[in-house]
Each structure stands twice: as C-alpha cells, then as structure tokens.
User: What shape does this take?
Amino acid sequence: MHLGDIEIKYLDGGPFALDGGAMFGVVPKNLWEKKASPDDRNRIRMRANSLLVRAAGKTIVVETGNDTKLEAKLKHIYGIPDGNPLLDSLHKAGVTPREVDIVINTHLHFDHAGGNTHFDGVRIVPTYPRAQYIVQKSELDHAFHPTERDRASYFPGNYQPLLDSRQWDLADGSLEILPGISVEPIPGHNAGIQAVKLTGGGKTLVFVADLLPTRHHIPLPWIMAYDLYPLQTLETKRKWVPQIVKEGWIVVFGHDPDIAAATLHERDGKIEIEPVDLNR
Assistant: This one.
C-alpha cells in the first residue's frame, strides 16, 4: 500500500497466546468468548503485528515482535513458536536487518520489542545494527524500573544493549520522525505507550498497538486487565476511536490474529470494520 510517497507493508511477527480473561478485563467471559474462543488453558489466539515502511529513502520497522530469547518455559506459556517469524517476514519482503534505518517501538513489553535484539551465540546484540530505535523517554525510564504489577512484561535484554550501543533516539511526547511519519502518546496501557501515524496522499494510517489490541477491543469498555491505567485508556479511546471513524483513517491493531488493519464505520449506532490488505 502507498500513502503518497510512503510505502507500507504488513509484517507478520508470528502467533502467540494470552489469557482471555486478562485480555478483556471486566468484560464477562460469556461475552468475550463469543468473539475470541479460548483454548483449554483459557488462552486466546494473538499475533504480533508489525509494519515495514519505506519513506524519504529510509527503511523503517514498526514493532519488532515477540522475544525469541525467552526460556522454553515462557515460550510454552505464551505459545511463542521457535524461530523468528518477523525476520522471516522481513526476508520475504526483500529486506535484511542491516538495511533497516529506523525501528519504532510503541512500548517495550516483550511482545512488542522482543525482537529489538537477538542472541548471536555469545551475547545479546541489536538485531538492526545500523538503526535508530525510537521510543518514548518515559517508557525507557519505566522499563528499567517497572512496578511489581508489570515487571513480568519487561526484559532488559530487549533494551539495555541498545543503550550500550547508543542506538536509542528518545521521544518526549509527539514527534515528527520524517515528513508524514510521527509518533503520538496514547497513555493508558501504560504511561509511555505511543501510536505511530503515517499520512500521505490524502490518507492516514495509525498503528495503535495495545490501545486496540484486536478488533474486539473497539467498544469503549472493552479494556485489557493488563492496562496499568484503564480509566486513562478509556479516555484515550474516547478521543481516538471517533476520530478514526470520522477521518476514515486505517487502523492497525496490535495483536489481532485475523485482521491486522481495517477502516471503521459507524452504522446504526455501532462501529463496523472493513478489513484492509496492506500488501495489495
């Protein structure tokens, strides 16, 4: 897909699974299981959705997928496959890690930033050796000092090596990275999460990560129990969802296993989705 001079492709970061109750918070199971059927361990299917963007002579990866460095026990718990699906997807798109100029992390949880680094057989090193990595400064600060409630989502191997190699380029609020490409805070899931906004050719696409992890999270009260600040998530959704509908933006869901991108349309008081194929 092209938005003016900006080229966008979907990258499949691979499947995984999370507890359905945690994914839907206060929504009763008899409601959410009609949307996302759980397995015998109460987990629902998820996917690590990423983007490949080319603009202004730069190659950009948005989100680096799950942490392939996790020990076998954690991979089993989260249903993370062996190998590196995101790098496989990047290879199919004809891009090597060394060709990537910019990596944008919406935040630093292991299912969004796990592929920032890899184990080279001796030590953990940056996966994209030439790239600037962009995240909110507040999020990097928090990653080094998480709370008891969210520390299981942060693994220093995903971000400390980039501090050592001086590859972090930290944002402090809204930031234009390149013409038509910016990041904007979308607090709620945590304090430092950001959306990625791409605009060109009269169209806009927004990658909203865990603000709308799946299409089933579009209704305002469908908020994850993982969110540190659920009432702030509610207010962020109250602002962003109507704007996405009104402006006809394409929205990319962070973890929807079946529909990565869609436009949203209000009909008879309900929001319906129209899938968008980013690789057409």
